[in-house]
Each structure stands twice: as structure tokens, then as C-alpha cells.
Amino acid sequence: MTKKKFGVTHVGDEVTAYTLKNSSGAYVTLLDYGCTIQAICVPDRDGKLVDVCLGYHTIEEYEQNDSYLGAVIGRFGNRIEKGRFELNGKTYEVAVNNGPNHLHGGMKGFDKYIWDVLTTDDSIQFSRLSPDMEEGYPGNLAVSVTYRFTEENELVLDYQAKSDADTVLNLTNHCYFNLSGEGSGTVLDHDLQLLSSHYMEGDADCLATGKVLDVAGTPFDFREAKKIGRDIGMDDVQLKYGGGYDHNFIIDSKAYLKKTAVLSSNATGIRMTVWTTQPGVQVYSGNVLTHRQGKTGVYDPHDALCLETQHFPNSVGKKEFPSVILKKGEEYSQLTVYHFER
Ligand code: BGC
Q: Which residues form the active site (predicted)?
């Protein structure tokens, strides 16, 4: 583990970059700002390190970041209809910051805070106390995300939380992957397999309606690996709404740690397998990733894929889905593993 000053925010707070390197030389760099994955450098088929995650070189860019590049999302990943939910008979209102709905924790989500840090030789734990009613969410929430990077090139994210009152919680990470290398252009030529037979319908604002759809016979069928771009242009109302893929897939496996996705690039030979304890994954093909300068090149729509492991969006109070309620004193615990091979 090494650490280095990354920059200073516009209000004068210092941001630090932490690097976890394994004995092969592969490494990940993490920021205490937003608990952000700033770089993932793993070997390609020739052993050359390739940075497979989109990001920036300066804190200013992260502060202006409207796309959550690499950040942890909280308290609630994805949308909540009209920013309103009921819990224990009480209605809570959270920010409406995405059309008519709430998105990714509100105006100042977990991605915009500097987290406390605890480091060991091979792990970094970021933590913060999210106070009662922060962004409208009840309960003082103690939350931590621990990153480890193993000798096998597995990036492990371990999420823990506890609240002093009943609340709702849906944490995820919003890393944008491009296995041909960040800044190298589109990921529509990447092969993607999703171990999901069902996904959730979105409305015109990409809000999950709660309706579960079968992938069979649709462009959403990734059960056999196919190019992300193969069907993305098909005449399908769900693809039109999102401008591509922006949907929650329901993971088929009921195991504790479930394999959910395999993404690979022909250009580098890098393959990433995603494992998670979560029941779903938001598959987002960077549809509204507006043109911008990134670390080594410009980024445009579809230049990355997000695989945001999570509970189902807009599912507060929907009894048919896995509960997103965190009861007072209960331990919240979720694990996601991104495994890079070549
Ligand atoms: C959402 C998209 C949204 C994006 C913002 C994704 O998780 O599903 O609808 O535009 O985040 O960067």
C-alpha cells in the first residue's frame, strides 16, 4: 500500500490517493474522495499493464463529475420514484435530482464526500458516518467500504453498515470499465455474458417500474456471451428509453456469492468476471457519458460499461423483491468481486 496527495478540493480539503499493488505489479488506485476507484491496472495478453477503468487525473474533474466515475453510490443506488418512500407508516422525501425521480443518493451523495481511511498492508477501509436525515434518509448510518486487491488480480469490495434507526440502503460502485483500456474508444465490441434470465422494465425516465421481463428472444438476452453492440441498435422500446442498456438484471443464481457477469476484450485479451452477494446488477452502457477529457483520452457515450451490483432500483416497499430495509442495529453486509484474467 502506498499513498500520495491527489489534490485539494475547492473548499480546501486534501484528497489522498491510495495504491494497492500485488507482487505481479498489477494495481488499483483508490481515492478517499467518493471512495473512488481511480485506476485498475491489470496485465493484457502480453503482460503489459492496461488501465481498465475510466477516471480523471485531477480532483477538480471529480468534483465536477456528473457521471459518478468509479465512485461508491449511497445511500440508495439508482432511482426512487418521485423521491418518495414509506417506511414504518411514515413518508420520507429525498431529493428529486433526475427528471421526476431521485437518483444515486441525492444532491450530495456518498460520491461527493471525503471518507475516513484505515489502511493495512493489503487493504483500505473507507468509512463515514452519514447523519440522520442526510439527503432525507432516516438513521445515523455508520458505513464502510473495504477494498482489497489479491494476488489473483481480484478487486474485492466489502460493504458494511449499521444504523441507529430503521432505514433503507442500497450501496453500489459506479466503476466504468473498458477492458481495451480507458480512453481507447467504444466498448460495443466487448463480449458480455450476463447470468440473468430476467431484467426489470424501465419507463421513459429509466425508472424501474417493478415489472419483471423475460430476456428470451429480446436484445436483453446475454445468457450466451455476445457483443454489447450486437443488438443495442434494435428497434426495442426498452433500448430506446435508455439510449442503450440501462437496466437492472436479476441474477439467476441463488448462491451466497453469485457469478453475474463476464466481460472481455479481444483487443487486450483481458477478461473480467463479476461475483456478488447482491441479487441484481444495473447494466449501464454509458449512454449519457457525455464527451469529455479523461485520463488518457476523450470519453464518449458507450466508451465504458458499468456493472453496478445492487438490490433492485425503486424497490422500497415492494414486497415481491429482496428487502432494502436496514433495521435498527442490524448489520448490513455485501460483497462484490471483480476478477481480472487474461
Ligand atoms: C443509471 C443511469 C444514469 C447513470 C448516471 C446509472 O447507474 O442507471 O440511468 O444515467 O447512472 O451516470
A: 174 (proton donor), 308 (proton acceptor)
